[in-house]
Amino acid sequence: MPVNSTSATETRQAGNKIVVAGIAAIVLILLIAAIVLFANLPDANAFNARVEQLFVENTDLTTQAEIKLLEILAQSGTAFSETLDSYRFVIFVLLVFATAMLIAAVAFLVMLIAMNRRMGHIERKGIEVNSLLISRDQNTVYLNNFEFKLTAAAIETLSVLAEARMDDEVLSGAEIEAVISGRNAADCDEAAGATRIKRLRDMLGNQIVSELLVKNIARRGYMLAVDKDIIQMV
């Protein structure tokens, strides 16, 4: 039966296309709004043109007062033109600002959605362990560069699990106790090893480590749930 599946790459590419399409739609809508707005604004020179027409059509206006009135009208037309130009510039700046704000809002929305998906993925899959460095001399373990101070007994337990993981082995509680105590596994109690595992988990943080680091395999034993290539012991 064929199984329908969508890869993470295809999903990301589809998401990127949606984001680009959304931003392009925002810019297009604002561009159309700007064109319509500027097209319906009155002509800045309309007033000046009308005053000029008055000069041409009324050549008989020769008195000083009439000429002064026409000059005032001309100056008013110039002031109106300059004011309308400033309004156009303000409108243009506001449209650019609105475009930037809308694009930023879309970008932040996409980032928030991506972050929520990433957090959901982390909650489902757990935190990926990229490095595990065990320092026996300092009784310290570095998990993804996070430092944890452990007791000598806990370091020994973790070291035994790390060595077994590098050999692709699963150790039972009795075998863990036998390696640490130096006795035969047949002479060791399974509960003793289980107690060591519990103490190790408690020191590292039981809720996290029980899921990420120390894995319990039913009827077989314990192992580190990490890639053996990332384990280092000093």
Outline of this structure?
This protein is of the alpha+beta class and 234 residues long.
Question: In words, what does this structure look like?
Answer:
It is a single chain. The chain has 234 residues and is α+β, with helices and mostly antiparallel strands. The chain folds into 2 domains: 9-125; 132-233, Arc Repressor Mutant, subunit A (Orthogonal Bundle). The chain has 7 helices and 6 strands, in the order αααβββααααβββ. It has helices at 8-40, 46-57, 64-125, 152-166, 173-181, 190-204, 206-212; strands at residues 132-135, 140-143, 146-149, 214-217, 221-224, 231-233. A 4-stranded mixed β-sheet has the order 3-2-1-6, covered by helices on one side. Helix 1 (8-40) runs antiparallel to helix 3, helix 2 (46-57) runs antiparallel to helix 3 (64-125) and helix 4 crosses helix 6. The longest helix is centred in the middle third of the chain and has 62 residues, at 64-125. Mean pLDDT is 75; it is low at 1-8.
